[in-house]
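User: diguanylate cyclase, Halopseudomonas xinjiangensis:
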Amino acid sequence: MAAQFDINELHWLLDIVQSIDVGVVVTDRDYRVEVWNSFMENHSGRSATEVAQKTLFELFPEIDQAWFTHKVETAVMLGTRAFTIWEQRPNLVRFKSYQPITGLADEMYQNVTILPLRSTNGATDHVCLIIYDVTGVAVNKRQLESANAQLRELALRDGLTGLLNRRHWEQCVEHEFARHMRYETPVSLVIFDIDHFKAVNDTYGHQTGDEVIREVARVTRSMARETDYAGRYGGEEFVVLLPDTDLNGARQFAERLRLAISKLRVEHQDRPLQFTVSLGVACLDTKMSNHAELIERADKALYRSKESGRNQTTVFQDE
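Assistant: Predicted structure for diguanylate cyclase:
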């Protein structure tokens, strides 16, 4: 009776292994497959008969053999379970994802448990792999991370233009000032605003004014380098912080920007509007006591451009 009970118990166990929604693979110590449940059959497209006595590395060439065998041998030597998680390695074997998650993952994300199996004589002569489909969890976490990154980005950006907002670009100026004081690297700042912008708003309306601001921002962003910081000061006023750029380089950049903006056209009721900008340029030097002085100098240079007739670039000269 006891023997019959044991056999029945084994059948139950095999039924459970076949029906659970995780992959179960048992290999010998040469990584030849001996147990291959229905989860593995369904996702690999290979039956248990087809894979019997084939090695995992024949069946799944994508497995990093050196990494995997080291992990298994360590688990066997210590007599403990080992784990791999999708955040460190997205999957052990490549299975397509069939979960209804609107195509956000082509492949199945997997967590894997490596379980050394002891025989009745105490020797570890088999290894069990339990493969969990965690695609839903992984995709949800990736989406959450992406959403959080977008929120962080939005917190740094001006809503109308997409340029850095004032709080953030001033922090960038402060950071570059500290770097300049330590390494004496050149840093320049360009401040500019749209000439006679109030007249644009008063004559053509605020929607047209907003479109002018967006177009100026677009050109500014396209002309700035990846290492530059383009931001909106407020209203129709903008800044571009230029790390590793001396006064002459900043003046050349400002002139290129001025000419590019002068060629812009914004349509209003089939009538193209043209506009210009006035610019002020200043460069950090070791005499400055804080980053605000750089902003103040560039602002003074901008004011001189306006006084001198607008649509020009003025470089701050220390009097």
